[in-house]
Amino acid sequence: xxxxxxxxxxxxxxxxxxxxxxxxxxxxxxxxxxxxxxxxxxxxxxxxxxxxxxxxxxxxxxxxxxxxxxxxxxxxxxxxxxxxxxxxxxxxxxxxxxxxxxxxxxxxxxxxxxxxxxxxxxxxxxxxxxxxxxxxxxxxxxxxxxxxxxxxxxxxxxxxxxxxxxxxxxxxxxxxxxxxxxxxxxxxxxxxxxxxxxxxxxxxxxxxxxxxxxxxxxxxxxxxxxxxxxxxxxxxxxxxxxxxxxxxxxxxxxxxxxxxxxxxxxxxxxxxxxxxxxxxxx
Length: 282
What we know:
Blueprint: E1 6-11, H1 16-20, H2 24-31, E2 32-33, E3 42-47, E4 53-57, E5 64-65, E6 81-87, E7 92-96, E8 99-103, E9 108-111, E10 117-121, E11 130-136, E12 144-146, E13 152-156, E14 165-169, E15 182-188, E16 194-195, E17 200-201, E18 205-212, E19 220-226, E20 229-235, E21 239-243, E22 250-253, E23 258-265, E24 274-275
């Protein structure tokens, strides 16, 4: 039985031929994830792409425990899984098997297989917003707290191409070890709106994007689909989108923004991608 403070939905995998025939409503129903951050609740989406779970937790006046849901088929949520939580709200805490870590905005915590996890906010008036990412694990790895200042930073792009941005790699081969989760954040500079273009695909890993740091009236056009037959989904602030392994994943906003990207699959090699030439996009 799922805890009363947890809601979940299930998304099944979609092949590229089926996705090419979808209208706007069908695309959103299969790939778009909204309503992630509801006060006093944990909202989860269980995806059949590499069994990734994407979710949000917003503790207010009391802690929220991450308890199991039926799709995992386990007595405890992290019995056979690992978890990464990124805080995009006010200061909060994550407790893992009794050890508590304070997460400032844009800090991240890693919980390995077997951990019991609880989320809390320091100020109910400005609650923490924990963006949750979980995938199956094969071994228990040490819990970690990664501050935004500890992430590996790469500055890329330029104002001339409207894609000046800073990439923060929370998880990378030389740093914190995970079983399969790879997570990072990209912050676009003022005046820049494009991300991940030229685009790529990686058939061995799915990916999920969370767009945030946007005004209520701003939007990002997220591009998806096979390179030869692209589609788009209009994204608002604090909404996520699933990217199948066969799909490109790129976006262009009406203003600069930030997004958290997360992958799960066969390896944790950032360079294991197939680049898509601009002239082949359709």
